[in-house]
Amino acid sequence: MSEPLGRTVGVGIRRFHRAETSEAQDLVATEEPLEIRIVCQDGAEPAKLRVSVTMRTPGNDFELAAGFLFTEGILTSRDALIVVEYDPDLPEEQRSNVVDVVLAPGVHVDRDLLQRNFYTTSSCGVCGKGSLEALVVQGCRPPASRGPLVDVEVLLGLPSTMRAAQRVFEETGGLHAAGLFDAEGHLLVLREDVGRHNALDKVIGQRFLAGELPLTDRLLLVSGRTSFELLQKAAMAGIPLVAGVGAPSSLAVDTARAFGMTLVGFLRSDSFNVYAGPGRIKAGA
Q1: Of 110, 93, 31, 98, nearest to 65 (Cα)?
Q2: Residues 215-222, mean pLDDT to the nearest whole number
Q3: Which of 40, 124, 127, 140 is catalytic?
Q4: Distances (CA, A) of 253 to 90, 124, 250, 259
Q5: Structural domains in the chain, sorted by start
Q6: In this predicted structure, what is the pLDDT of residue 41?
């Protein structure tokens, strides 16, 4: 089934400009709930297990579901799933907000893992040490290889390249973006969403469904600040270099250093800060 919800919606507004007011139409980013479920076939009868509900911008929902399940350590292999689909048993008006990830017969999912509290906000109350230990349990390890050596000029060009591809942001000004680049600065995948974590899950999910993980030779750029949550997802996907146009959090810095990643913040067209892993960045001649 195709994805029917639009990514923008028109709303009537009253515009104030100095001493004058007028009636107008504006575009805002769509925000809708998405329920992610796993359909297990490791018992006598298939079982649908509710995993999460997230508020997202419709579009690339199957990538979002797959990316979320991978970065949370629930799915580890593309071969583990048969299909990702909207729930065919729901009425049409509800179907596009519920995604079923159908696992291959015999694939076992730890039910206890599905019940744990995911580290999805900066106010989750989990200490930094516990968060980093949890990543090790999930399977995060330092990159197997050094990864690409990236020229300074390539980094400086990433924000303008990504911004030029942000179609919905240009229409609404209300979305985060995550962009996956190669070491020469070519944009490979860009996804937008009201949630910065969703945008990244969509990027990783696209590569997961294509069977192209880990991303050990790729660069990631995010449109806002870099939080622990984003570094966690990048680490799970094997991305060695993460850059943000905003500031990193302290736990994001700790995560990058613990897992041998390069972390860049305040990336502009003429400057940036390196908070971890400077050895992957090559100064120009």
Answers
A1: 98
A2: 96
A3: 124
A4: 43, 18, 5, 10
A5: 32-125 (3.10.20.10), 150-282 (3.40.140.10)
A6: 84
The C-alpha R_g of the chain, in whole angstroms, comes to: 20
Nearest to 278 by CA among 265, 266, 268, 264: 264
Q: Is 84 exposed, middle or buried (0-12, 13-18, 19+ CB in 10 A)?
A: buried
- State how far the Cα of 52 lies from the Cα of 247, in Å rounded to an integer: 28
Q: Check if the beta carbon of residue 95 is closer than 8 Å to that of residue 4.
A: no
Average pLDDT, the chain: 85
How far apart CA 64 and CA 34 sit, in angstroms, is: 9
The whole-angstrom separation of Cα 234 and Cα 253 is 13
Query: Any residues with CB less than 8 A from the CB of 274 and at least 6 apart, and which?
Result: 262, 263, 264, 281
Mean pLDDT value across residues 225-242: 94
Give me the pLDDT at residue 145, please: 63
CA dist 26 → 16, 59, 167, 170, 203 (Å) = 13, 20, 15, 12, 28
Quick one: three-class SS letters along 114-174? HHCCCCCCCCCCCCHHHHHHHHHHHCCCCCCCCCCCEEHHHHHHHHHHHHHHCHHHHHHCC
What was the pLDDT predicted at 175?
83
3-state secondary structure of 10: strand
Q: Comparing C-alpha atoms, which of 179, 125, 190 is closest to residue 155?
A: 179
Write out the H or E segment, with its range, that includes residue 190. Answer: strand 187-193
Sort strands 273-276 and 98-103 into parallel, antiparallel or unpaired: unpaired
> Could you tell me which residues come within 8 angstroms of residue 188 by beta carbon, excluding any fewer than 6 positions away?
180, 181, 182, 218
Q: What is the pLDDT of residue 165?
A: 85
Q: What is the pLDDT of residue 123?
A: 34
Active site residue 127: no
Which of these, 284, 262, 279, 177, lies nearest to 218 by C-alpha position?
262
